[in-house]
Amino acid sequence: MTVTNPAPSPPLHTGSSGSRRLGVVTVAGLVLLVLFAFVFSPADAAQKDSVRIMYIHVPAAIVAYLAVMVTAVGSVFYLWKESEFGDLIAAASAELGALFVAINLFTGMMWGKPTWGAYWVWDARLTSTSLLFIMLLGYLAMRTSSPDPTVGSRRAAIVALLAAINVPIIHFSVDWWRSLHQSATVSRVDATLDDQMLFSLFLGMIVFTMVYAWLLMHRFRVIWLERQLAERGLDDAIAERRAEAFQESRS
């Protein structure tokens, strides 16, 4: 009697001990950020309480830039070495990049209404950021533009490189063109942020980076499992068709 080992069961979740620890620290950081941003940090002399949007708006922008660069680096490795890891990490990071750009645009609109008197103006910073959001959506669309996953991944990788070029354009747009958007808050020589405001801003950057890292780990594993399932389904379909052809040849 031949004993066959059962096929390994798929994982029930995408977590690990490391991701769970990071998740706990991230949740604690989010709670701390809310307290500093909306309770401990004082209102601005000019912008009043609307300055609190900065603690979400700026970190979301920084993490969005990070996500785009990770997508670009992963895409380079895929185009150069045909690295599956690079392709999957790029896809996961692009999804998160689109999320954080959306948060950045939304909070910017909420800040623009009391400051500029309008939710939206065709400012250089806003326009180039919107273009980045469209590029990230285009990247995700390109991944499913062909029945052959490798073709879709290659097309998307090219879009990722173009999106990466747009990041420095966004960053320097307030200096290159006449912009309503204020220049960099932290890097200005004449910056006069209150200590608690400055701490809250840097805390937001750290916490949002942890949120990105935690989501990236889980999203990468989900995409990897989806690809494994698709490949297994294709292998099963091929095996079934071969069995049918064999039976037809014998009849």
What features would you describe in this structure?
The structure is a single chain. Helix 2 (54-81) packs parallel to helix 6. With 251 residues, the protein is mainly alpha-helical. The mean pLDDT is 83. It is 75% helix and 0% strand. It has helices at 17-40, 54-81, 84-116, 124-142, 149-176, 195-250.
List keywords for this structure.
251 residues, 0% strand, Four Helix Bundle (Hemerythrin (Met), subunit A), globular, mainly alpha
Can I get a quick summary?
The protein is mainly alpha-helical and 251 residues long. Helix content is 75%, strand content 0%.
Per-chain topology:
Blueprint: H1 17-40, H2 54-81, H3 84-116, H4 124-142, H5 149-176, H6 195-250
Helix pairs in contact: 1-6, 2-3, 2-5, 2-6, 3-4, 3-6, 4-5
Count every helix, treating DSSP H or I runs of 4 or more residues as helices: 6
Multimer state: single chain
Please tally the β strands and state the result: 0
Q: What is the overall silhouette? A: globular
Profile the largest sheet.
none
Radius of gyration from the alpha-carbon trace, in angstroms: 23 Å
Helix coverage percent: over 70%
Number of self-contained structural domains? 1
CATH class categorisation: Mainly Alpha
